[in-house]
Here is the input.
Amino acid sequence: LPWPWAASSWKARSTASPTTATARPSSAGIRRRTAKAKKPELPAYTAEEIARMMESDTELRPLVNECEQLMGKIFSEYEVASILGMHDYLGLDAEFILLLVDYCSRRGKKSMRYLERTALGMTEEGIQTTEALEAKLKSMDKLEDDMTVVKASIRNLSGRVQTLEEARHLQ
Here is the structure.
């Protein structure tokens, strides 16, 4: 048997009487997965709900159209529902969403899931106004620029590529 405890565990179970407790294998050295806290999600809207929301709020159709242009594609029902969720569920205004879409698309992150995660992360940090988002994005851009300089200087020290350990510390 591939596990050293399997044979002894099997024998203990097979020879134990119904009134005695059965032996269990030792969990020494076995890592147990802990349940992760469930991250907040945007609600899923049906096609009827999307149509009703688009008709009732005149700001939504231009918002979705502008987001499509920034992302360079026509949105699916899921993607439209994500934009509507950011506006309706998270309470983000159109300017905030457009700024976030522009930032993500400039970084080459054109996945709606990435956009959702970024929006949820910003709201969890308490960033819900356009001004606060602009300040956060500016600091993120500066940090990225600084990291680029640091990574380049490490590479230039000895003309070598950074090690995995160095890369891990720099991220």
Notes: The radius of gyration is 26 Å. Residues 98 and 111 are 15 Å apart (CA to CA).
